[in-house]
Design a protein that fits this description.
The chain is about 40% helix and about 25% strand. The radius of gyration is 30 Å and the shape is rod-shaped. The chain has three helices and five strands, in the order αααβββββ. The chain has two domains: about 70 residues, no CATH class; about 60 residues, OB fold (Dihydrolipoamide Acetyltransferase, E2P) (Beta Barrel). A hairpin with a 2-residue loop joins strand 1 and strand 2. It is of the alpha+beta class and about 150 residues long. The longest helix is centred in the middle third of the chain and has 25 residues. It holds the Pfam family NfeD.
């Protein structure tokens, strides 16, 4: 049988193990399990007569409540506003800009050159060289309309 005086160490070793898992697989899940195990170890250190069933129950309650509290906090936390909100949405950066057609729009499809990239466009049939304005993007195809 386990000696009652050193049982709290088992919980603290478990807490360190959870911290190691958190370092390997971050996501703030194992962190809360580690905190729960540390608290249970501290309770066992202070109240040596705590039975194993009470320890497991306390750990379970602390672990579940701390993980749920973290998830609720993380969900309601406001995200930072980026100074480049369209950084990873390259096509969306071109909405509202005008370009010249490098291939006429025939049967609803044509092409424009944007910097060093050629993009497909969709819009009304228009001759080569016409100025068009990008009004939307669907996948990798720009929706355009003729500039007046």
């Amino acid at each position: 049988m386990l000696e009652q005086g050193i049982v709290f160490w088992y919980w603290w070793v478990l807490a360190v193990g959870f911290l190691a898992l958190e370092i390997l697989a971050s996501g703030f899940f194992f962190l809360w399990l580690a905190v729960s195990a540390f608290i249970v170890g501290s309770v066992v250190l202070l109240i040596e007569t705590t039975t194993f069933n009470v320890q497991v129950l306390l750990f379970s309650l602390l672990a579940v409540s701390s993980v749920l509290a973290w998830r609720k906090y993380a969900r309601t936390r406001t995200t930072e506003v980026s100074d480049h909100p369209l950084l990873n949405r390259r096509g969306a950066q071109y909405i509202g800009r005008t370009f010249n057609l490098i291939a006429p729009i025939e049967n609803g499809q044509g092409k424009i050159k944007v910097d060093d990239t050629i993009w497909k466009v969709h819009g009304p049939d228009t001759p080569l060289g016409t100025k068009v304005k990008v009004v939307a993007i669907k996948g990798t195809v720009f929706e355009v309309q003729v500039c007046q």
